[in-house]
Amino acid sequence: MAQALIHDPDILILDEPTSGLDPLQIKEIRDLIKSLAGHKTIIFSTHILQEVSPVTDRVVVINEGRIIADGRIHDLAREAMGVNRLFTRLRHDAAEVENALQEMSESQEVIRLDGGTEAATRFEVRGAFDKDLAGAVSRLARERSWELLELHESRFSLEETFIALTRQSQTGRKGVA
Question: Which domain holds residue 91?
């Protein structure tokens, strides 16, 4: 990398720059990339998707030699997945909670993540990005006097987004993969 930087190029192309490095070296390379990003155009090629988010929020996804997506990670997740998601754990009868979550106008899909116990049951709730899932679940729990033990939104990872985008490019459809 030093040889490439010595000539102060306007464009820097990095192919798997963190491959084979230890964690400290990876951090140093990430810091270097971020420091150069304000002054140079950097093209960062990698198959290790965990390496992307720490250095940028804009990606170009290439599949079978074609650009299939270009944009900010969050926007690509919205486009690829079509839904937002949150995780919740409620203390009440699991079947009753599941039915009530499914009946909410804000939810499109409800997935029970564990078998449920007398203590609580955990669910993943998916719905449109423009819907307030957290508010809806919170109101439901309050209205029904259920104990709400967990409630947090969780963005789809770049890996999940990449898989959905590449599957969609192969089948020509959109939606949760």
Answer: 72-177
Strand ordering across the sheet containing 109-112: 109-112, 121-127, 84-91, 147-153
* Residue in the structure block whose two tokens are 């949150």: 86
> Closest by alpha carbon to 86, among 117, 121, 123?
123
Domain count, the chain: 2
- Are 76 and 142 part of one and the same domain? yes
Residue 150 within a domain = yes
* Token digits of residue 84: 């937002």
With a cut of 80, say whether residue 162 has pLDDT above it.
yes
Per the CB < 8 A criterion, the answer to whether 149 and 90 are in contact is yes
pLDDT in tens, 11-67: 999 999 988 999 999 999 999 999 988 888 999 898 888 888 888 888 999 988 899
Residue 95 lies in a domain: yes
Task: Calculate the dihedral angle through the C-alpha atoms of 62, 67, 68, 69, rounding to the nearest 10 degrees.
Answer: 90
State how beta strands 41-45 and 11-15 pair.
parallel
Nearest to 156 by CA among 102, 59, 85: 85
Residue 170 backbone phi and psi in degrees, to 5 = -80, -30
Asked whether residue 79 is assigned to any structural domain, the reply reads yes
